[in-house]
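R.M. (postdoc): so does anyone remember the format we settled on? I'll just put the structure tokens first.
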């Protein structure tokens, strides 16, 4: 059977004739006003032009907004993104640094944009330092900073231990950022781990069930449940040397968890049952089995503090069935669409529970393992 392939997220490599210089990043003490009804359609038009690759035209729209409202961080961010696409990197960084002086929803993105450019120019250490400065501000929605930092560690420094730790730390402070779980799952895939792959993809598919990258994630999720060959990560080197060292899995003893996963499909088998019902029964039984396994010395690991309690609680609340149907929504399994249309209340109750689930405090989890 052909192995599934996942690509590690790699930031685009950019080259500038002169190294960029980052101005001093001042504390976000200024306040950005809300977008006005007059500005909103102009910004939307600019974003649409940007998406079409018409960056010069997009820039005129953002400049129009800033002419009327020089403190519009929304326009600053979009303009800085356009400068980046036009390879006007110093202009992009200068504008992002200005935007970073405001307490605003775009604050993490300003730091991420600066770090992205630095990383692309090969200034990886400076990029990581920029991400850390943004993280230190404790802003909401900082997942993008942890994600980019993890990518810088892996692609720029080949430091997959720090990369995985960054993704875990990000998931603890921005639990609804799907890319963090996707990246964790990708590393777990490369390590040949079973239960961690299933857990990370389960969380990712709840957050992002119906996108192009979700299809690959779903295929890997099913591969784990079907006990098929462990997928691999490309490029293999230098990740290969890291992931094939048994001393560097950092996820604790997976023996009982993996054994339960391997046995789960056969345990749920029953003649005549529809495939989707077999899958529901398998996952329901598996999550119930996880509830009976004791973590022992691994109780503070990310897997046992973060993922396992989530699926165990899902089972206790009777949400496994809507979970399985929801993450299968883009598949061609018979009965999926009909069930989802017939049970919107159950799906919405599950999603509401998931959105408000009490994730552990970051201080209680060992993200270095």
């Amino acid at each position: 059977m052909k192995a599934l392939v996942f690509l590690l997220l790699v930031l685009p490599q950019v080259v500038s004739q002169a190294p960029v210089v980052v101005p001093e990043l001042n504390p976000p003490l200024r306040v950005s006003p809300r977008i006005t009804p007059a500005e909103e359609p102009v910004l939307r038009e600019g974003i649409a032009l940007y998406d079409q690759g018409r960056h010069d035209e997009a820039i005129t729209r953002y400049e129009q907004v800033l002419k009327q409202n020089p403190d519009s961080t929304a326009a600053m961010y979009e303009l800085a993104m356009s400068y980046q696409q036009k390879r006007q990197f110093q202009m992009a960084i200068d504008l992002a640094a200005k935007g970073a002086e405001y307490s605003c929803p775009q604050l993490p993105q300003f730091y991420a944009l600066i770090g992205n450019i630095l990383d692309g120019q090969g200034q990886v250490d400076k990029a990581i330092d920029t991400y850390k400065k943004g993280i230190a501000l404790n802003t909401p929605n900082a997942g993008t900073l942890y994600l980019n930092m993890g990518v810088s560690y892996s692609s720029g420094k080949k430091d997959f231990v720090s990369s995985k730790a960054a993704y875990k730390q990000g998931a603890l402070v921005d639990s609804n950022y799907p890319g963090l779980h996707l990246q964790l799952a990708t590393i777990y895939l490369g390590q040949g781990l079973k239960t961690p792959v299933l857990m990370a993809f389960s969380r990712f598919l709840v957050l992002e069930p119906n996108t192009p990258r979700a299809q690959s994630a779903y295929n890997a999720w099913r591969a784990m449940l079907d006990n098929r060959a462990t997928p691999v990560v490309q490029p293999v080197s230098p990740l290969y040397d890291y992931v094939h060292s048994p001393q560097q899995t950092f996820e604790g003893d997976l023996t009982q968890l993996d054994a339960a996963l391997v046995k789960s499909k056969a345990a749920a088998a029953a003649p005549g049952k529809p495939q989707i019902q077999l899958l529901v029964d398998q996952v329901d039984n598996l999550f119930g089995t996880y509830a009976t396994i004791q973590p022992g010395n691994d109780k503070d690991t990310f897997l046992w503090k973060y993922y396992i309690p989530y699926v165990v609680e899902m089972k206790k609340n009777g949400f496994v069935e809507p979970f399985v149907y929801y993450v299968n929504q883009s598949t061609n399994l018979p009965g999926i669409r009909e069930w989802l249309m017939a049970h919107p209340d159950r799906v919405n109750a599950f999603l509401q529970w998931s959105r408000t689930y009490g994730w552990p405090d970051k201080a209680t989890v060992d993200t270095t393992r």
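R.M.: ...and that's the designed sequence above, right after the tokens. Also worth knowing: Residues 1-16, 232-247 have pLDDT under 50 and may be disordered. The beta strands are 5-7, 30-31, 102-103, 232-234.
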